[in-house]
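User: Can you fold this complex?
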Amino acid sequence: MLSREEKEEIEAAAAAFPVRQSVAIDALRIVQRYRGWVPDEAIDDLGELLEMSTAELDGVASFYNLIFRRPVGRHVILACDSVSCWLLGSDGLMEYISGRLGIASGQTTADGRFTLLPSVCLGACDRAPVMMIDDDLHTNLDAEKVDRILERYE
Ligand code: FES
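Assistant: Here's the predicted assembly.
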């Protein structure tokens, strides 16, 4: 199922390493960039390409929380629920975002616009509470700020 472009990018990445398995995460990211997520069939093909079992690759994909193994919306919200954010109200904020979008954590809006996921620490604890939408970090959140931020994503 992998496209020629995906295979070429993965081969180019693998060429820099003596062991093909070294690029497992990069390969998963390449597939995700093209498809938005990583389907089972892609894991099978990657296994052949990288000389890894599907169980090994699935383990890598599951460990790395930015690899999506199910379809996601056009924008993925990662709401930090680690300790600094939790102390500063991330629970309430997650509830607020859920209510605003009409979905529970782990779900995607009916229009496919957003997927809402909990996340481990996003590395900006001094600016908690924090969320990421796609590649953008949003800090010092409150309900009003969340409203303004969500408007920016179509
Ligand atoms: S605990 Fe939320 S960014 Fe670190």
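The mean pLDDT is 95. DSSP finds seven helices and four strands in the chain.
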